[in-house]
User: Which sequence fits this backbone?
């Protein structure tokens, strides 16, 4: 039987060989963490390589994603569908083995990691999801949700401020099934970290109310004992500080930054093989090593045991079991669309004159009873974002059985923890803040789009219309840049009806993220036909048409739609008003529909209280813009709209100039 060190050396060999073949990558971290990974994956972690989406599997996150060959080696050796040819294809075009672990590329990868600090934060979200799902579904004598979330992270993850936000939250919530391993190797790209990283990491995590233990990261017995101890601590998360040598086994480069982000070189690899006693040729794994790693039989046994547990649960609680399966599959209740369409029609009939943030809260109230998987939150702005509803039950350290969380003033952490909850499964997750503060969250928005997951971002106080708080709080460029994220949908409704439709569309998009942008101030409701209400879903539609051919088309979003309607009435010309609450959804429509809305050859003016450069895509270079070109000011909203040209007179003047 091979020794533990022999099994760990298989990771080292594959990592240095793959990086060398690609002439690109990071061999040091996989070589340094190989002993920790071997103990965790062979002796402690619950997973089935032939059933990677098994609901009660343990989750594993490689937060230091540059060490991706560690992830790929583990998947290959333990029996996942990742071949040696995939390993040889490391970092090549369309390979499963991308430069950093990419969600959806290979079975067993739970999240995309690379931006440091993000993986540990996703993992906190996963642990929140596990705890809450268990509280919602487990019954006396029937535990169907009971798994751990394991995270590997390096010094870079701990330097990023994001990890402070999420790890403090994990301690506050007492997430006892979250276990993180710190690769304490004293090295980052610039060299030894002593000049730029604090030395008190264990103390920091103690202050977060984590269970903290330190071990030699190359002592398998000590590592195993620490994991066992961590699993026994159920009232707080655990940090296992693992003192390791980066590039372990390399006689000339280990312990230095030279093996962090570059191939070792053929000569050094040969010397490393000799020092490790690894005699197999590149990309060859001896049969006894494969046998020592193969987890398929154990994984099948563990999953079968859970299946028996779930069958007993289903026999006693059939409705709960069916609900659990539905939620984990990510399908919405059969009556959701019908009920939401009824709510939207009722809202159109009522035509409430309210702020769209209030309309959003009405939609949440309507959806809450329909969607037990709905899980909301706010970054310390619930009373302003209006993201709670009558059925809100707060999740905190004392109560896991809820559907809402106060994230505190940690927008970036909130967004990535939300992503983690979505990745875990079982929830439709939304979280809110002021629109201006999406700047803190931008990387999380990008990552949710990159992973194609349905996180919902709620933003209120959408423009200069928020008023007196001034330019620091007034978003002007945010909507334009958010619309540019591939696969991301950004909605800014003009009234309660469009706001309700935007919520419906966000809930239906399970494979891509959505931002919902709402106003602080009241918005004038617009009358519509049933056909127009149906066309809202297309992202852009004709709201007000004219008799005969249009001379000019006004395109507007949000609060500026009402202004466009008023200005059209003041024009001595045939004006069509197009409401375009979601340019992204509009762009996805067929050309015939788009041409029916924005008729070719007709001059156009775009009206939006944000920067307007991107609107040239719709109005053309001969079109006009009534948009922001500067930051805002501090004043009441009515004064600001007048100051920056959002008036009937200015829209009419701009249109006349375009018409010549």
Assistant:
């Amino acid at each position: 039987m091979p020794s533990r060190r022999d099994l760990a050396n298989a990771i080292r060999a594959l990592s240095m060989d793959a990086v060398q073949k690609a002439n690109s990558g990071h061999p040091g971290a996989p070589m340094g963490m190989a002993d920790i990974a071997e103990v965790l994956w062979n002796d402690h972690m619950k997973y089935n390589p032939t059933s990677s989406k098994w609901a009660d599997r343990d989750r594993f996150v490689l937060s230091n994603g540059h060490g991706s060959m560690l992830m790929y080696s583990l998947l290959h050796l333990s029996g996942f569908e990742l071949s040696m040819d995939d390993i040889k294809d490391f970092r090549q075009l369309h390979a499963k083995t991308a430069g950093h672990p990419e969600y959806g590329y290979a079975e067993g990868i739970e999240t995309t990691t690379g931006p440091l600090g993000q993986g540990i934060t996703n993992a906190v979200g996963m642990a929140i999801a596990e705890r809450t799902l268990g509280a919602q579904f487990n019954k006396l004598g029937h535990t169907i949700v009971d798994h751990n979330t394991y995270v590997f992270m390096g010094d870079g993850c701990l330097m990023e401020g994001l990890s402070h936000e999420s790890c403090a939250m994990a301690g506050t919530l007492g997430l006892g099934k979250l276990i993180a391993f710190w690769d304490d190797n004293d090295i980052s790209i610039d060299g030894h970290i002593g000049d730029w990283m604090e030395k008190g990491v264990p103390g920091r995590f103690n202050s977060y109310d984590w269970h903290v233990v330190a071990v030699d990261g190359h002592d398998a017995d000590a590592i195993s004992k620490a994991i066992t101890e961590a699993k026994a601590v159920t009232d707080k998360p655990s940090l296992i500080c693992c003192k390791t040598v980066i590039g372990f086994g390399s006689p000339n480069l280990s312990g230095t930054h030279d093996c962090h982000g570059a191939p070792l070189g053929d000569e050094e690899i040969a010397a490393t093989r000799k020092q490790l006693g690894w005699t197999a040729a590149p990309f060859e794994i001896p049969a006894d090593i494969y046998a020592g790693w193969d987890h398929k039989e154990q994984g099948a046994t563990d999953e079968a045991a859970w299946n028996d547990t779930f069958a007993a649960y289903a026999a006693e609680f059939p409705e709960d079991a069916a609900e659990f399966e539905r939620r984990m599959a990510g399908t919405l209740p059969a009556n959701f669309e019908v009920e939401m369409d009824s709510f939207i029609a009722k809202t159109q009939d009522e035509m409430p004159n309210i702020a769209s943030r209030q309309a959003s809260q009405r939609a949440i109230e309507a959806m809450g009873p329909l969607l037990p998987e709905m899980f909301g939150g706010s970054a310390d702005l619930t009373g302003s974002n209006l993201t709670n509803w009558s059925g809100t039950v707060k999740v905190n350290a004392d109560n896991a059985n809820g559907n809402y969380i106060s994230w505190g003033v940690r927008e970036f952490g909130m967004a990535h923890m939300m992503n983690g909850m979505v990745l875990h499964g079982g929830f439709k997750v939304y979280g809110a803040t002021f629109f201006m503060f999406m700047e803190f969250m931008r990387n999380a928005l990008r990552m949710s789009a990159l992973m194609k997951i349905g996180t919902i971002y709620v933003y209120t106080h959408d423009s200069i219309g928020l008023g007196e708080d001034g330019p620091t709080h007034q978003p002007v460029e945010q909507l334009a840049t958010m619309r540019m994220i591939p696969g991301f949908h950004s909605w800014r409704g003009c009234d309660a009806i469009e706001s309700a439709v935007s919520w419906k569309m966000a809930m239906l998009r399970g494979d891509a993220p959505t931002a919902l942008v709402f106003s602080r101030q009241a918005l004038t409701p617009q009358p519509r036909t049933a056909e127009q209400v149906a066309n809202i879903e297309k992202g852009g539609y004709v709201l007000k048409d004219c008799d005969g051919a249009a001379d000019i088309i006004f395109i507007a979003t949000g609060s500026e739609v009402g202004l466009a309607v008023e200005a059209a009435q003041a024009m001595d010309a045939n004006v069509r008003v197009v409401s375009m609450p979601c340019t992204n959804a509009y762009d996805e429509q067929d050309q015939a529909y788009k041409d029916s809305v924005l008729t070719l050859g007709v001059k156009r003016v775009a009206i939006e209280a944000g920067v307007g450069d991107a609107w040239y895509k719709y109005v053309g270079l001969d079109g006009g813009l009534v948009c922001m070109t500067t930051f805002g000011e501090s004043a009441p909203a009515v004064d600001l709209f007048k100051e920056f040209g959002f008036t009937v007179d200015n829209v009419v003047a701009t249109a006349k100039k375009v018409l010549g």
Notes: The mean pLDDT is 97. The longest strand covers residues 603-611. DSSP finds 27 helices and 18 strands in the chain.
